[in-house]
Fold each of these.
Amino acid sequence: MRRREFFGLIGGAAAWPFSARAQPQGLRRIGVISAISETDPEAMPRLVAFQQALEHLGWATGRNLRIDFRWHNRGDVALSEEMLALAKEMVALEPEVILVQSNPGVAAVRQVTSTIPIVFVSVADPVESGFVESLARPGGNITGFSNFEASMGGKWLEALKQIAPRVTRVLALLHVETLANAGFLRAAQSAASSLGVTLTAARVHNATEIETAMMALSAEVNCGLMVMPHPVTTTNRAVILKLAAQYRLPAVYPIRYFVAEGGLMSYGIDLVDLYRRAATYVDRILRGAQPRDLPVQAPSKFEMVINLKTAKALGLDVPMHLQQLADEVIE
């Protein structure tokens, strides 16, 4: 494909139609820990896709299945503490399988249980992160669906230079304590010199640190922004998008919704598709499969999205060949 060539629920789920409240006894029970808030507009599409896929496989809430939800509602320095608290709450419910999103989410759940099967979605570099022994044979009680390899750090930087060639200084927003984010940074650093870019990193844990880093960047010329995938950046995306527009910073993002909400460009995974695919592993575990025997799967869908309105506001003329490579162009 051409784009490959280019880059070489509030304590529970009261608000959800498939909530687990007031359901009969005898149901199979699973848990879902989300890396975003239940009020985030991205939450519903993901979990509806997950539920619909389960229904296609014969599992319906209220009939033979109960789903308990826990939500990440904070993008601050207490992230690990909150995730650990959510993991403890979920494990206390004794589900047969836990679906969990993000590296911090998996790190928290594995601290609490080594026996309950865990299926992850949108986890970067699960081997380096210590979650599985190998992609082919995970071992233990954890398997799932990964998002990005470390090399994506260099590809994001390349994408930014393609759409904003005048950029010579780039700030990477990341949560460096997450090993996968550190891997993205190393890959971007390796690519920086050949792209004529000076790369610096902002190790952010909350909105205040994001604001401080972006304000400092705005004082420079020919600057751009690269946002790494992590609950800290996704939860605080409104802050990032606002400041990128205010300081007129070309930016590349890892997921489409940044661009749909006003960002310039993204190259990344289809999270809804990952949730849909994750239902197949939950189904297989409920029917007796062991996580250690289910290989970790890589994304099957990547998408490049460009926002032409944002490009125009930044004074960028997006080349036609780049528009043609994009899976979606927002006008």
Note: The longest helix spans residues 271-286.
Amino acid sequence: MKIFLSWSGKLSQEVARALRAWIPTVLTNVEAWFSSEDIPKGSRWALELAERLEEANYGIAILVPGNVNQPWLNFELGAISKSLSTSRISPFLFDLEPSELSGGPIAQFQATTFQKDDVWRLVLSMNEFSGSDRLNSDSLRISFDLHWPKLEERLKTLLPERQYYDQKSFTEHMVLRNYVKLHHAESPDLSHAHGVRTADPDATNEDAWYAGSEIPCPVHIVYGPYESLPAPGLYWAVFKVKIDSNSNPEATLHLDVISNKNPSLNSSRIIRGTHFDEAMEYQLFGIKFKYQNEVDVEYRVIKLFQHRNLWIDFIAIIRD
């Protein structure tokens, strides 16, 4: 079976590139293709694209904020959907919710969100559509579970490339004046898988949670408290952290907000060493999320790069 990955814009292109590399590792019976990667140099570009669209049995549209109504993306999907009896289309939503497709032409198709269970359903759909080349579902699940972490890690590194997180700047005075929840990292409110409580005159209460370079990575540093918030709506989780060096571009921290009961709440961010303005200076990083009366909201700091020392002062929750 041949899968056509349709994209529009840099972020969408990078997601498509990651899926193109990953899908055949799980579904060995398919060929995944997208234009920026597979058109040979010197080929007649429009003719090559038309041939690929004609051959495709399955189309995946990579949708990100800002590209849902792009004409070229809709043209490619229209070409694939000409014969729905022999082809299928699935929008892949990267940091979008299905409700954001309302009213557009792509809304008629069943969308996949960037969540493990949803991507598994997409893999099952592609496998079922491959006819006589269909793989055994039990073996497929084993392969999916084995390869999922690589895709998840790759796609999460793309999130900071968006300006979504830079649309709101925070000052400590503003955060401490307006928070609805405040959790000091060393307090019993949060759980601690690794690291130690340490005195730190730079922290708001002169205590912080410290994780040194001796800790093998990746590991959870703090997580919890599995709480509810005052009312439904948009919130920011603001993490106050510092690092011993800001010269390394490697992914250093994974910050997220999650709910086991409502995956649509989940939001995350990768922090690299170079995202810190200064070494040994606390900095605030915010993650926006939508709360809908969940009772198990959890905030997590996951250390990704071993050879760094880091300190966590607090996690504050404020209304948008």
Note: The first strand starts at residue 2 and ends at 6.
Amino acid sequence: MSESSLFSIAPLLAVTAMGLLVLIVEALVTESENLSYWVTVLGLSASGILSYLTMQESAPAYNGMITVGGYGNYFTALFIVSALLTTILSRDYLKKTHTNFGEFYLLIIFSTIGMMLIASANDLIMVFLGIELMSICLYVLAGFMRRQPSANEASLKYFLLGAFATGFLLYGIALIYGATGTTNIPAIIEKFPSQSLLFWSGIGLLLIGFAFKAGAVPFHMWIPDVYQGSPTTVSGFMSTGAKAAAFSAFVLVFAHQFQGGEKLRTALSVLAAASMILGNIVAIAQSNIKRMLAYSSVAHAGYMIIGLAAGNALGKSGIVFYLTSYMFMNIGAFGILSILEQEGEKNLTFEDYAGLGRKKPLLAAMMSVFMLSLAGLPPFGGFFGKYYIFVAAVNSNLTWLAIIGVVMSVVSVYYYLRLVMVMYFQENDSEVTAKPAMASFVVLAIATLAVLQLGVFPSSLLSIINTLF
């Protein structure tokens, strides 16, 4: 093992070392929550810097099992930012809900390690290991508020359905290996023109496994209940970090123009259309904001799958841009929910937000920015995320899919603007006593500025993304 190989995986090593350090702190120090928090924040920050320093080194390592630099490091930075923002927002939320235990930060760290393995994978075995490490931590995080029945239900549903999806994923990898004699992703992509029934059966099962993790229809059943029952900041982490990890694997395997891959392209198009239609239409009927954002997450998975079906360079770049802007939008939205939420899952309905524009004008303004961006309106990052995806679809003769995407985006404006209307044009007599900590407010401000910057200067990020492919 050379020094260059160790340096190339420095971000992964740094997060792993930090996780082990937090584990030791939890074992040896009483009332370790504050120490675990600061070790997590400092360790994630250091790992983010290392991922930036090693981003230019793009090459396979460790006998072709992982790819260092470039694509993997960009997603590593994305996961670290998501974990860091979630950690900062969670500190006061955990105190408020009487669940301030250091194990929370440990689970965030190890789920991030799993995400990093997925994005850096050059082999399906590494993808599987990363997905399982990420998922097991998220199962526990979903039920972290174990005194609440809804949290126990969320954790159990996520675990059972996740284990079921893992079976599809692993069996798919086994069939692909049986047909090709390899689990190396580039070698498998070369064999896509194969007409072997065994091979295509494996590809289909692999697609099901990834679609479950991305929350695409019809594999979305777990999302509404899990998002609603989980700690609010964890729901934000699932909808950003975990979704980005799933799509990093999707792009590695499926975002290509394949000879003889028309059936796969059709399957991806159907997944995209079904996710957009069901997610947006069912979101209209929700009164709980977390459930609304859950079905919204299903719809956004559909938008991003359009980029996979397109299979061109703009489609891949569009997915990465979309994931980046989506991370800031959803972390911000769930962050505001976590600040305003009261004990007993209160202050989570649309009616509870009536008059927020008068009571908490800054929080209402930031929530409005996130809602308008999620709706895909200019001049916010969500607009250009959808724009690049739809252009990629048109360039690949999938104009019908782009039209469905545009129509469903118009439908989504209803329920996003509904929250904005309630905040500014309705009133109720309840008082809002929540006071965000300075650190949480800074996180929300960063997310807001990022959404605005990506909408006004999208080329600044797109130029970086284009170097990854």
Note: The first strand starts at residue 59 and ends at 61.
